[in-house]
Specification:
GO terms for molecular function: alcohol dehydrogenase (NAD+) activity; maleylacetate reductase activity; metal ion binding. Its EC number is 1.3.1.32. Helix content is 50%, strand content 11%. The strands form two sheets. It has a six-stranded parallel sheet, with helices on both faces. A two-stranded antiparallel sheet has the order 6-7. It starts with 20 loop residues before the first strand and ends in a 7-residue tail after the last helix.
């Protein structure tokens, strides 16, 4: 028949790819020196948190003494500007021509802060599921506000994904880090600049993490744990690619606000806020939420994320992770400043209600 729209027609879109090398697989850390060779780099400053010093030393040993400028082990959450300045100075004084960031979002974020100022290339070795390694997005906290931006200089030139490095990641941290990654994909599905390629990656990333996290949290060991860790890291790569390729929306604005201005733990904030943010956007993005639900194997996306977190013992309320109820009004005010594009317009009363639900850990109702 004529005059009827073609079902499921692909809408116009723009897709931009970025040059980045990814090495994935058990034991891939052993090829770290080859990654420096491939990029023509000679001398690395190895970055880590104080808690991950042993993994940084492992990476340094694989590189060998002549190729290690030093180890800077002071990475912390939300990249305070003071820490970024110290790391930049260390890289300069030690004569590093690159940074190797071993860890999660805090460490990779510190590497980005160095690159933003100096252009020093980064090789990322992720040990959590944060996804920052796949993005040109940076965040630096100064004077109590987390400022974010995009700059291709901060995109890691090479990413080494070794599931063996995440075997010892505590189950609770694995769960919140994984749901953090799911948040990137979920918001990518209703991004203003989304495209079919990212939609596919988002759905597959959510599916892989939803499959892996219950196995990890359930105390599996041996081959089952190794397979689940590989699945989770694969999902994190896909979700991180989505984060780096399309714009984020209300959920990420809220998490940047709560983390940067109230010093709440990054992955836990994402875990708590995501079901509430999805419920807020559900009326304006029904197709995206159907895809999230299908990838989770749930009837409803907000409820599915909430139930996944709760079943795996993750926090579901802001009050559980250090938020004070008297700060909710201020958080709402900050979140309304320079808002990110969002499928549903931001309304102060509705946003304040969202934050209250997140504070209390209310199970989101079906839209």
């Amino acid at each position: 028949m004529t005059g009827l729209p073609y079902p499921n027609a692909v809408p116009p879109f723009v897709y931009a790819s970025r040059a980045q090398r990814v090495v994935f697989g058990p034991g891939s850390l052993r090829g770290l020196a080859a990654e420096l060779d491939a990029l023509g780099l000679k001398r690395a400053l190895v970055l880590c948190t104080p808690q991950q010093r042993a993994q940084a030393e492992q990476a340094a040993a694989l590189l060998g003494a002549p190729r290690v400028a030093g180890i800077f082990d002071q990475a912390v959450m939300h990249v305070p500007i003071e820490t970024a300045r110290q790391a930049r100075q260390a890289a300069s004084e030690l004569g590093a021509d690159c940074a190797v960031a071993v860890g999660g979002g805090s460490t990779i974020g510190l590497g980005k802060a160095i690159a933003l100022d100096s252009g020093l290339p980064i090789i990322a070795v992720p040990t959590t599921y944060a996804g920052s390694e796949m993005t040109p997005i940076y965040g630096i906290t100064e004077a109590g506000l987390k400022k974010t931006g995009k700059d291709d200089r901060v995109l890691p030139r090479s990413v080494v994904y070794d599931p063996e490095l995440s075997l010892a990641l505590p189950a609770a941290m694995s769960v919140t880090s994984g749901i953090n990654a799911i948040a990137h994909a979920a918001e990518g599905l209703y991004a203003r600049d989304g495209n079919p390629v990212m939609d596919l990656m988002a759905q597959e990333g959510i599916r892989a993490l939803a499959r892996a996290l219950p196995v990890i949290a359930g105390g599996a060991d041996g081959d089952a744990l190794r397979s689940a860790r590989g699945d989770a890291l694969y999902g994190a790569w896909l979700c991180g690619t989505v984060l780096g390729s399309v714009g984020m929306a209300l959920h990420h604005k809220l998490c940047h606000t709560l983390g940067g201005s109230f010093n709440l733990p990054h992955a836990e904030v994402h875990t708590v806020v995501l079901p509430q943010a999805l419920a807020y956007n559900a009326p304006a993005a029904p197709r995206a939420l159907e895809r999230v639900a299908a990838a989770l194997g749930a009837a409803d996306a907000p409820e599915g994320v909430f139930d996944l977190a709760k079943s795996l013992g993750a926090p579901t309320a802001l009050r559980e992770i250090g938020m004070r109820e008297e700060d909710l009004d201020r958080a709402c005010d900050i979140a309304l400043q320079t808002p990110y594009p969002n499928p549903r317009p931001l309304e102060r009363a509705a946003l304040r209600a969202l934050l209250q639900d997140a504070y209390e850990g209310a199970r989101p109702g079906r839209a």
